Structure formats: structure tokens, C-alpha cells
Amino acid sequence: xxxxxxxxxxxxxxxxxxxxxxxxxxxxxxxxxxxxxxxxxxxxxxxxxxxxxxxxxxxxxxxxxxxxxxxxxxxxxxxxxxxxxxxxxxxxxxxxxxxxxxxxxxxxxxxxxxxxxxxxxxxxxxxxxxxxxxxxxxxxxxxxxxxxxxxxxxxxxxxxxxxxxxxxxxxxxxxxxxxxxxxxxxxxxxxxxxxxxxxxxxxxxxxxxxxxxxxxxxxxxxxxxxxxxxxxxxxxxxxxxxxxxxxxxxxxxxxxxxxxxxxxxxxxxxxxxxxxxxxxxxxxxxxxxxxxxxxxxxxxxxxxxxxxxxxxxxxxxxxxxxxxxxxxxxxxxxxxxxxxxxxxxxxxxxxxxxxxxxxxxxxxxxxxxxxxxxxxxxxxxxxxxxxxxxxxxxxxxxxxxxxxxxxxxxxxxxxxxxxxxxxxxxxxxxxxxxxxxxxxxxxxxxxxxxxxxxxxxxxxxxxxxxxxxxxxxxxxxxxxxxxxxxxxxxxxxxxxxxxxxxxxxxxxxxxxxxxxxxxxxxxxxxxxxxxxxxxxxxxxxxxxxxxxxxxxxxxxxxxxxxxxxxxxxxxxxxxxxxxxxxxxxxxxxxxxxxxxxxxxxxxxxxxxxxxxxxxxxxxxxxxxxxxxxxxxxxxxxxxxxxxxxxxxxxxxxxxxxxxxxxxxxxxxxxxxxxxxxxxxxxxxxxxxxxxxxxxxxxxxxxxxxxxxxxxxxxxxxxxxxxxxxxxxxxxxxxxxxxxxxxxxxxxxxxxxxxxxxxxxxxxxxxxxxxxxxxxxxxxxxxxxxxxxxxxxxxxxxxxxxxxxxxxxxxxxxxxxxxxxxxxxxxxxxxxxxxxxxxxxxxxxxxxxxxxxxxxxxxxxxxxxxxxxxxxxxxxxxxxxxxxxxxxxxxxxxxxxxxxxxxxxxxxxxxxxxxxxxxxxxxxxxxxxxxxxxxxxxxxxxxxxxxxxxxxxxxxxxxxxxxxxxxxxxxxxxxxxxxxxxxxxxxxxxxxxxxxxxxxxxxxxxxxxxxxxxxxxxxxxxxxxxxxxxxxxxxxxxxxxxxxxxxxxxxxxxxxxxxxxx
Length: 1061
Hints:
EC number: 4.1.1.31
Strand content: 5-15%
Largest sheet: 8 strands, parallel, barrel
GO molecular function, one term: phosphoenolpyruvate carboxylase activity
Active site: 154, 727
Distance between the termini: 41 Å
Structural class: mainly alpha
Mean pLDDT: 83
Keywords: Carbon dioxide fixation, Lyase, Magnesium
Strand order of the largest sheet: 1-2-5-6-7-8-9-10
Radius of gyration: 30 Å
Region (Disordered): 324-438
Number of helices: 39
């Protein structure tokens, strides 16, 4: 009876999803009727009907008839002209994107309607208390938890940012449509808005015509913060605090946050020559600029809200001290109303960008409503001052020290930033001289211009402003917050000058540099409101701002640096040769460690300032110099990819120490912030197996162990890579080696009484370590998640998980509760040693099978190039870095992303399952089937590994993969290889189902199966079209229209598969 009820509930739940899919499809068809004509739309519908019929027959098990219909569909597609193929590709690509929007909305709405949300703070806190954990233990664990989500620019986000914004607008419209109080007129207006958005999407070029720069990628990451995370974080922290209060009686401390954010965008230079030291500096400054800009908007709104006069004595004294600092009554008046907001001019000599580079304020909301900042589904009335402040004297004129406010509109609209430069609306004025040649006469001339611009404005401005208050009636909160805004404005202006390499005359006390400096006056206001009985006001917008400052700091996301270990060896080799010390790269490990330790203990710099080195080496040294100038206040970790020895870590420590000595010597004072954490990244199977030994060796070195205690609070961070290990040995072997490596690293740190944080380099797809966050964290080895975790979120997953505030809140909650459970109730160890032995055996067979196909079969490389669009992926312009680390055509130097991306396009998803079937079958044939079933039921790690493989097998499609081979693979032997691999896929499916006990794939996740099946009538024709276009393009490779059509099919298939690489 329960099963029937669940089925009915699921049908009801999916009815809304089906309705929205139908609505968006019909609206797109209406747009297409106008844009391309009825005749072509009818042809689209005929093809869709053929595809739907074939899918229905396959679901019913009538394979032969389904194959006939698919051949008929392929025949129809092969007869299309190039123009028809291009339009067909665009239409079906948009169908799939719109279905994705409906699916996301369906998930959000389903979550909202649940009375008891699984994996929520409320549920997990309650679960832990009932399992015997004390309230104090729960409270301490939550308050001390440190989770950092690191956003990366890995090239897997297929959609242009312009289209992403339009998709967000449609999502908001669907959310608005769920309101029960809409009138018929409201709904008609909403439909008109949807039609406008879909028309705009259709008339927009889907393809990036140029590769993004690293700064473009960084800007995209900052926009995720602005459009979503900025709203989501206070909501999430309120949810945590309320759950803590309910279950422990104590709220989350104001300056405590269990989650923070990091970024690789603009710092990841591994194999990407476009990420230079200057790019890293500019991106870091840009991130600071965005943080301060967002704080200015919040302080403006808070000043309007906190208009009361009652306050604590301490706050009153602070307000009077601020007034005393002013030199004239006019200045006092301005300080109360709108202090130091600057003039409206922009930097001189810069042309305004031809296109907007940032989402305009409220552009992501429907025209028929304005949603509140809290992300709620009902609009909130915007009173004057909550988002809009009257134009004050300083908004209309320049301040005495020539500060610049970049188009501060009522809603604090976004500023125009392009490639690290700031747009200029006064292009008729001459550009200031570069740093060093800016003469005093030029400065005087500029100040005269500013003074003249004030003439005639002051009297008019007084009519717009209230009369200045007398001292007994001052609004103290407004004075204090006005002073905060004044310093924030100066901080923002200073960053603009630094980005433009212009003279900066601000003293350090004029602006905010650290998080604590900004928190101090905000906490003063909070304590004052609480002491005056206005706690309800204190716990509103002010608490949200304090929590934002705590979470985002002054940089929004600290920037990690990443470089390949060989580049550091090359740099040290050049230095040792220059100093006649020998060739560092030729020394053995012990000699390297002896040299590095000796130099690290030395108090003198190693690198002479006059050293002449090759450009590649100079870039490495310049990066360390920038790291020294910015310090740990702006930067996070220095990650060493392809790390394999202790010397790889000490090499970075030495180069970092040397750069800090040089910079502090030039500055005449210590470098800002502390030294960066140095994090080895173990990626290949060989390096993973040696990870524990490397950490033991490092921690046994006196200098290093003392350094860790002194500078990093006895904390060692280690990163494990999922992508290259999967490409190296197959998904199953990679998963097991990663598990054992984490165990070994955690044990090594425990032996040396050092706390460890594991940093997981997970991709979006299963083949690169992706999958459900909760499942992944809950299946980590016991003791590897002790209240701390770092994890990357890459490419398309950033937008999918954090692109909308509601989705972001849910993801942040899942991260928090999963880490908490893994800390307080670690997953079970393997019940018996036999299970570990079986895993070793499965892994060995799986790895051997995988490598014999991928690396040892002489036909495989040619088969891979023919059967997939791998060679054509480079035309996508979706990332700033090359697709290969080195100029080799082999699989070894191909990056993991295009490797997985190409197989995902053909629906074969080979990297996620190849070798798994052979491993499971080999063990089952030795009589261990029952053992595997027991492992699946009782060992979380094994269960999650099998479940993820089963999930990806549900997305694989043998008939589609076969069609690629039949049309595109020319050689008989290579076609036979494809047939053999398809048989291997069937074997894998059978073995996985035997182990899981499921009757069919995804039986334990009917919702996922239903969603996948709903996409197939649109996805299958896209694959058939891609095959036809590839066939034509490979005999006419200079045809740009064919190339465009192919790239659009790649976009559409990525949307349908819901991941890329």
C-alpha cells in the first residue's frame, strides 16, 4: 500500500513539472512560428513525435520497432539543408535548456513544500541528539566547523553568461507564477514577460565568439556571489542559528560561520599561460572592490533603517567623536545625511565598454514584480531608503579629496568592469599620467576642475535635504554608519587607483583594510540596539550584514594559487645554476631536501635582485612576489599540482619565503598578512599511493613541523584529485585509491599530532569525482572529515548549485549537515579485512581492463578521435586554458575535462564505467557475490561507489553510441572495438544490478529516472543531428556554419545530460 501511495505522490509532484515543460515548449513554439515560420515548426513537431514514439517503444521493450523509427528519424535529419540543421539544432537546444529551468524550479518547489526537509539542519541536529550526542557537543561542533567551497573556472560551463542571466529571469518568472494570489491580468502579463525572455534568447547568439580571459572567468565567479550567494548566506545562517537555538538553547554566534568561499579563478595557472602574476593581482583587487561595493549598498539601506536616537553611551560617544572630527557645520550636516559619497565622474581616458559586463540591478527579476532581498516568493514593498537613497550633496558633486563613485544609482546598481579596468563616462577628458609622472600641477588642475563642478549646486542641493539636526537630536546610528560608508568609499576608490596604477594618497586610517576593522562599528551598533531593548531591530538587516562580513570578509572569496610542481623545480634549477651551486633538477631527493632546509633556515634572500632568467621562470618568481605583496589576507592556499615528493612542498616554501624577504625589504616593514598555506595535490594513482609517506616525511623535518605549528596553527592541508586519477586508472580504481590515500594521510597527521584538512578536487561529472554532495561526504573514510573540509565546485555545477538563492541555501545546508554527521557519526569501517582484500582485487582487475583498452590497444586513440567530437571541442571557447598540458596527441597529456566531455556527448560516458564490469565480474566468478551484496548494504563507501556508477549507467545509451560508430568510424577493426565496448557496458550494467539488488537501473531513484526519460525525446534527435553534422564537417572542415551547428548541438546535449566534463 505504501508503494502505491508513494507512486501517486510522485505523479502529483511531477504534474507541475510536466505543466511547466509544456508551457515553456508551447511558448517557444509560438516564438518559432514568428521567427522561422509554421512550415519549419511543423517539421520540428514531426521529428519530435518520431523521437517520442521511439522512446516509448524502448521503454516498453519493443526494441526492433524503436530502432526502425530511429533510423527514419536519422534519415529525415540527413536530408536537412545546412540552414535547416542549424535552426533545428538551435530549437532543440533551447527546448532542453528550458526543460532544465523547469526541472530546477520543480526541485526548489518540491523542497519548499516538504514539511520535514531531509538533510536539513533541523533534522540532522535532532538526529544527532537522539543518537546520544549532547547539546554542548553539537553546539561546539557547529561553531567550530570549517567548510570552504572553492569555485573554479574549469571549462565545463557551456552557456554564455548572457544566456545564463536570461535563464535566471525565466526561473524567477516561474517562481512568481506559483503565487496563489495572482489575478488573471497578472498571469497574462507574466506570460508576456516569458514570451519576451524566450524571444530575446532566440535572437541571441548562443556561441562565444572569443575565448574568455582569466579576468572574464573571475568576473563570472564574482557575479555568482552578487546574484545569489549574497542573498543566500544570511538566509542559510539564520536557518543554522534557528535550528541550534531550537535544539541547544543557544544561537549561532554572530561572528561565526560554518561555511566560507574560495576561488581558483585568476589564480589557477597550472597549464594555463594566460594566468599571469598581473592577472592574479588584478583579480584579487577586483574581488576586494566588489566586496566593498556590496557593503556600501548594504550600509546605505541600514542607515535608512536605523533612524532611532536612543543608543548606548559608547555609541553616543562614538557618534559625537565623529562629529567633532568635522571642521565645519556644513560638513556635519553632510556627515549625518550622506557622507563622502563622491562625485559621479569615472576614471579619465578610458572608453566605456561596448557591452554591459555586469548584471544590472534587479535585471534578474520579472517586470511584473519585485522580489524581496530574502529570496522569498512574495514581493516585498521597497520603501524609499531600503534600496533607494535620495540624491545628496556628495552624490551630485565631487568631494574635496576627489573620490569617485561609480554610477551609484538608487538600487546601488552594478559598476562597469572590463578586464580589470574601470569604464569611463568622461572620455572627452584627458587621461591622467602614469604612476611616477603625475605632476603636482596636473593634480592642482584636476582639483580645480572638481571645485568648479560644485558651483551652483550647493544651494539647489539644500532644497533636497532635510535641515541639519542640532546635537541633542542627532541620529547616532546614522552618523556612525555614515562614517563606515565614508571609509568604505575611500577603500573602494583606493582599489580603483591601484587597478589603474594611479597615485594613491590615502593613509591607512582613512579606509578599511581588514574584516575586523569593518566589524567593529557594526558590532558596536548591534550591542547598542540590544542594550536599548531594540533587539528586534538588531536581529534584522544589521545581523545579516555582520554575517556577510564574517563570511565574505574584505575579499568575497580568497584566491588560491595553483602551479605544477615541475615549474618550481625549473625555477630553482635556474637559480642554483646562476649561483654556481649546481643543477637542482639533477639532484636526488635527499640532496634537494638538505639544500631546501638549509636555505629555509637562512635569514638572507636566496635570489639576487639582478638575476636574469627565462620568461617562464620569471613568471614563477613574479607570482611569488605578488603573493608576498597580497599575503594571506587576500590569498588562500598555494596548491602544487602533480606533487610527488616532500621537496615539492619545501620548494614552494623557499620561493615564498624568499619573495617575502625581498618585498618586506623594499617596503621597510613586514609583508601584509601571513604566509600562504602550501598544499600538495596528489592526482595520479602512483602519487596517491605515496601521499601518506610524503606527509610523514614532511612532518618529520624539524623546520617544517615548527613552521606548521607557528604559522598555520598546527594544521596541514592536503588535496586529492579525482580527475587525473580517474583518467589514469578508471573510476573504480581511482575511488579506492583515493579512499586509501585519505586514510593514510589522516593517519600520518595523527601520528605527528597535526590537524588535517582534506581538499577534494571534484569535478561535475561522475567520471571526475562528481555526484551528490551529501553522498560523497558521507562515504569518506572515518577520521578524514574532522569538522573541516574543502571542495571544489567546477564549471556548470557552480551555476546549477548556486545560481539561484533557494538552490544555494539548500546546497550550503547539505554541505554543513553532511560534514557535521561525518564528524560526529563517522561512517562505518569495512566490517572485515576480507572486504578490503576484495576491493583490492576488484580494483586490480578493473585497472588492468581499463588500461588495456585506453592505453595499450593501438586502435583506441584513433577510435576515440573518430567516434567522439573531441577534436572539435576546442572551438567552443568555454575556457581560457588549453585542452592539453603538452602538445601531444596521446591520452596521457589530454586534460581530464575534454576526455570526459567527449564521451558524455556521445552518451557512451565511457570514463565513468570502463573496467568496473570486469572487476565485479571477476570477483563474482570466484564466488564472492554474497560478500559484494553485504558490502553494498553495510559499507557506505562501497554503496556510494556502486550507486554513482549505476546513476551514470542510467544516462548511457547504447543505440545512440552505436550510431556514432556506424556513421563516423571508418575502419572495420575500430568499429569492432566499439562493439566490444558496448558489450562491456552491458556486462557492467548486469554486474552492478546484481550487487545492488535492483531490478533495473536507478530503481532506487525513480525521480531521477523520470527526469532523464522526460529529456530523451529532445536529446536523442540532437545526438542524431550531431552525428550528421560531424560527418559533413569532417569532409568540409572550413565550413564555419557547419561548425556553428555542431557547437550548438554540443550545447544542447550538455543541457540534456545536465553535465559536461
